[in-house]
Amino acid sequence: MSDLLPLLQSRIPFVHPAPLWNVWYWLLLPLCAAISIVYKSVKCRHMRQVPREAAIIFFWILAGMAAAAAALAILVRLLER
Amino acid sequence: MSSTAAQSAVPPPLIAVAGWLLPGLGYWLLGQKNRAITVGVTVLLTFIGGVYIAGIRVMDVPGYDSLGRRVLLATPGGPQWALVARPVAEVLNKPWFIGQIMAGPISIIGSYASLEAASPRPDNPRQEGVAASHGRLAEIGTLYTAVAGMLNLLAIIDSSYRAGRREQP
């Protein structure tokens, strides 16, 4: 951490990468939310339907990602044996 | 009914250009202001989020090297800029830029800023001014900016279609 301190202090937001190395997997959430919101804004006839529809598809995307991650993790374990 | 008449006054190509110039503007011109604000704010925040995550060098501009200089190719007529000499191959070398550019002028501003940041400092002309990010953060930042552009493309196509269909929102 002491090695990283000068690097973090000299970091300029939007010019240098954000210090998110250890939490990169949480960055999936805003991206899924953005995709859900825009997709449902395009698909829904009335905008009042969008929050509910976007929330549903948001959780479906996350569930799909989690299932894919679990399947790949199992595959890797099997191949490593 | 007046809303329908107002929609039919705006031709779909103009809606498409407006949607690229400012994400969501195509819907705005159709009178669908809530949709315009939702799509526009989301696309812009996603793009800006990508730049925040990976830094400005996430914009990897075709035709330029890592030091922000034009890539020149040797041709029978003398050195020629790679983007002019073989534009398709050069763009396909950096396909994520196709997605990024669909986010609108903000991607062009970002590209310019990226090239400026890449320019070497006077004290070390062989090293990038700001190093490009690598690893997961670079991948995620690229994904954010490219997805923002592709979402805007989706909105551009939808708003143009709605303009051509001439229906109530």
Description:
The complex is a heterodimer of chains A (81) and B (169). Chain A is mainly alpha-helical and 81 residues long. Chain A contains 3 helices and no strands. The radius of gyration of chain A is 19 Å and the shape is flat. By secondary structure, chain B is mainly α. Chain B contains 9 helices and 2 strands; from the N terminus they run ααααββααααα. In chain B, helix 2 (12-21) runs antiparallel to helix 9 (135-165) and helix 4 packs antiparallel against helix 9. The longest helix of chain B is centred in the C-terminal third of the chain and has 31 residues, at 135-165. Chain B starts with a helix and ends with a helix. Mean pLDDT of chain B is 90; it is low at 1-7.
What's the helix and strand layout?
The complex is a heterodimer of chains A (81) and B (169).
Chain A: H1 4-9, H2 28-43, H3 50-80
Helix pairs in contact in A: 2-3
Chain B: H1 2-8, H2 12-21, H3 25-29, H4 33-54, E1 72-75, E2 78-81, H5 82-85, H6 87-93, H7 96-101, H8 105-118, H9 135-165
Count of beta strands of chain B: 2
Q: List the quaternary state of the chains.
A: heterodimer
The rounded distance between the terminal residues' Cα atoms of chain A is 36 Å
Order of helices and strands of chain B: HHHHEEHHHHH
Secondary-structure element sequence of chain A?
Answer: HHH
The N- to C-terminal Cα distance of chain B equals 11 Å
List unreliable stretches of 5+ residues of chain B: 1-7
Give the helix tally of chain A: 3
Mean pLDDT of chain A: 91
Largest sheet of chain B: 2 strands, antiparallel
Shape verdict of chain A: flat
